[in-house]
Amino acid sequence: MPAFAEETIMKLIDPILQFHEELKQIRRTIHAHPELAYEEVRTADLVAATLEGWGIPVIRGLGKTGVVGVIRNGSSPRALGLRADMDALPLQEHNSFAHKSQQDGKMHACGHDGHTAMLLGAAHYLAKHRNFDGTVYVIFQPAEEGGGGAKAMMDDGLFEQCPMEAVFGMHNWPGMKAGCMGVVAGPMMASSNEFELTIKGKGSHAAQPHISIDPIMAAVQIAQSWQTIVSRNTSPIDAAVLSVTQIHAGSATNIVPDSASMIGTVRTFTLPVLDMIERRMREIASHTAAAFGAEIEFSFKRNYPPLINHDPETEFARSVMKDIVGSEGVVANVEPTMGSEDFAYMLLEKPGCYVFIGNGDGTHRSAGHGLGPCNLHNPSYDFNDDLLPIGASYWVTLAEQFLARAPLRPEPAI
Ligand SMILES: [Zn+2]
Ligand SMILES: [Zn+2]
Predict the structure, then answer these.
(1) Distance 259 CA to ligand 1 centre (A)
(2) Predicted local confidence at residue 411, as pLDDT
(3) Helix H or strand E segment including 274
């Protein structure tokens, strides 16, 4: 039993605790062999073979490398989905411990190795003990890191092939104490969007600026004015981020360039705020450029939608957390984050809830870890193996209680 904060009283499932060492080995094997979005061939093979080895039928090919395990019991038509992600990041690992990445430039720096192992731990228990009536779909998705693997699985018929009442997700959260879990109803993670602006002016010798239309001046004005969208156009009650992250123009000290470009990201928790920001960015850019006599090309690409937890499922998830980590371990209204997550797509189609599980402060890391902090997307990060039985116990308890209780909604989705 791992050591946690003394005040945290946990009720973990004993056979899962007995299986901790095996889960740790699985997690470390996945960590050592990271694969990027839609390339999770080895990982998907490992997941599928492991599930099949435990007598769980699998569906493959949804979202290219996605894997779904189907665990049925009894005669009830009711069903729910539990989802983990499998992909790694294009990052050079700084850790040198035994399970460090064997692939140059690729690393499990977001803990998806741990998410996969926790869900496998739950699948192992559910298949062995079958204390439920209905179907539990364990969903292992590809390409969370920018590739929209959740949506790819849905586009390939995930919810048609696997009809379910609700779907649940989980992410480790560095900085939150290990042994704690957190959730909030409503928006929990932001929408992620990117923009690109090209300003077309007129080049000249830098000693003759009066015959140019200087795109750099227009770019600077636009970048400044865009900052008023969050401070002047967005309600103080709403949150939003508008960051210009690249400005490119020019090639010499004595040339006024004929064009300039700006790239960046916008994050919001709601679609109306997003609509407003996109509209105001376009207005400010085109009118400011016009004032300089320049022209623009502006593109705005919407990536992941905001992740919005549904009320009844959040209340239910919170009560399951209490059963696992005790009320002292539950962060009942965790602070939302401006990070984004493609599980948001699933929550647009199905009721459900996404939660955080504390990954601790990094002191769990084996000797040989890098000098950086144990934060997500950091080359010195490592998933905390102490969480494996906590996450797996949460999944099992959630599935068993969900199928045992009355439906959370008067007319379930299936
Ligand atoms: Zn990530
Ligand atoms: Zn992640």
Answers:
(1) 34
(2) 75
(3) helix 271-292
